[in-house]
Amino acid sequence: MRLEATPSQTGLLKEFCSSLLDRLCAVARVESILKFMRIPFRLSLAGCVFRLLLILLFFLPFLATLQSQTAAPVDPKTIPVIDAGIGSCSADFTITDSAGAPVYSASIKVHIAYGVMSLHKMDLEVGTNADGKARFTGLPDKTKQGLFFRVSEGDREGSAFDDPAKTCKAVFATPLEKKSK
Predict the structure, then answer these.
(1) What does the alpha-carbon distance between residue 13 and residue 3 come to, in Å, rounded to a whole number?
(2) How many domains is the chain built from?
(3) Is residue 63 part of a domain?
(4) Closest by CA position to 169, among listed 82, 105, 88
(5) How far is residue 41's CA from residue 49's CA, in Å, rounded to a whole number?
(6) What DSSP character marks residue 59?
(7) Is 2 domain-assigned?
(8) Are 25 and 92 found together in one domain?
């Protein structure tokens, strides 16, 4: 698969490359050395080779990263999953608005305190997909105070509570309401 850059992306990349090359040349002081030797840097063979090496060393990895970021589009129906890696419990969420419609890109956060005397702590966050769904996996089998999930999107919020010792595979349908002032 071959990716093509738009004219605006090409222009931005050329501008970025030119700016970075100028700064790298100034830092390296190659230009001042060549001027001291009375050789015009931009016309010298050393200047051309130096710029070519800089392009190869610094910009090819950047272009590979840029291509890998644009190559894989995300399916809005795929359920986002975040794994705590602590236990075997999970929590499945379906987030809706007050009319029952799914809410896209709602943020679900949980603070987990686990282990002896709850000394281990972890904060997790996941966003919902186009169907308002998200999932937490690897949650601890038991916690001292349970798990309190906070859901928010814009000016709306909701919450859910789970005690993994009682409900290891929790399923929540959480409606979002306007934040009270």
Answers:
(1) 15
(2) 2
(3) yes
(4) 88
(5) 11
(6) I
(7) no
(8) no
Q: What is the pLDDT of residues 128-147, one digit of tens each?
A: 999 999 999 999 998 888 99
Strand, helix or coil for residue 63: helix
Domain range for 33 = 7-71
Average pLDDT over the chain reads: 78
Contacts of residue 40, Cβ cutoff 8 Å, sequence gap at least 6: 34
Alpha helix (H) residue ranges in 7-158: 7-28, 30-36, 45-54, 60-71
Strand partners, 139: 89
In a domain, 76, yes or no: no
Tell me which of 42, 71, 100 is where a domain ends. 71
Residue 155, domain CATH = 2.60.40.1120
Tell whether 125 is covered by a domain. Answer: yes
pLDDT at position 71 is: 47
For helices 45-54 and 7-28, the axis angle rounded to 10 degrees is 120
At residue 119 the predicted structure's pLDDT band, cuts being 50, 70 and 90, is confident
Position 127, amino acid: G
